[in-house]
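Saturday, quiet lab. Running sequence design on the structure tokens for the scaffold JK sent over.
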């Protein structure tokens, strides 16, 4: 919350996830309901700058890619509760499985990471099995 990438909306108490560009400017925001299945991107958002948690280690070349911002926070929280190094990896949300989100988000994240353009190790983590298979096929093609 201190980084300004996650907050609660005033009127409906939705979770708002914010994606920033290299200069720290807000470029993307999506809302996820705290009750029910409400999901929406804020009008004018650019999916190339989806929500991400940057590693506390600026030289980290580790990248974990998730389908949703909730998944990013869920894994970070689980790792924190288990007292493992949750913040030694860059975590990126693709913000869904829409074709617009899939091909561009990792590229834009890697471009805005503070590390030298070197080797990156990545893992894709999905929650929905069928969507995951279809999306991974899209990525590989």
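Result came back. Writing it out in full:
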């Amino acid at each position: 919350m201190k980084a300004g990438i996650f907050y609660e909306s005033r009127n409906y108490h939705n979770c708002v996830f914010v994606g920033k560009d290299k200069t720290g400017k807000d470029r993307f925001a999506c809302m996820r309901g705290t009750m029910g299945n409400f999901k929406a991107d804020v009008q004018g958002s650019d999916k190339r700058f989806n929500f991400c948690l940057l590693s506390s280690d600026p030289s980290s070349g580790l990248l974990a890619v998730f389908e949703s911002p909730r998944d990013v926070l869920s894994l970070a929280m689980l790792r924190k509760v288990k007292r493992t190094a949750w913040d030694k990896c860059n975590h990126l949300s693709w913000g869904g499985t829409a074709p617009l989100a899939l091909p561009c988000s990792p590229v834009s994240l890697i471009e805005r990471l503070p590390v030298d353009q070197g080797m990156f190790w990545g893992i894709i983590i999905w929650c929905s099995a069928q969507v995951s298979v279809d999306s991974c096929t899209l990525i590989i093609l």
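Notes for JK: Residues 6-140 form one domain. The chain has a mean pLDDT of 74. Ask whether to fix the surface positions before the next round.
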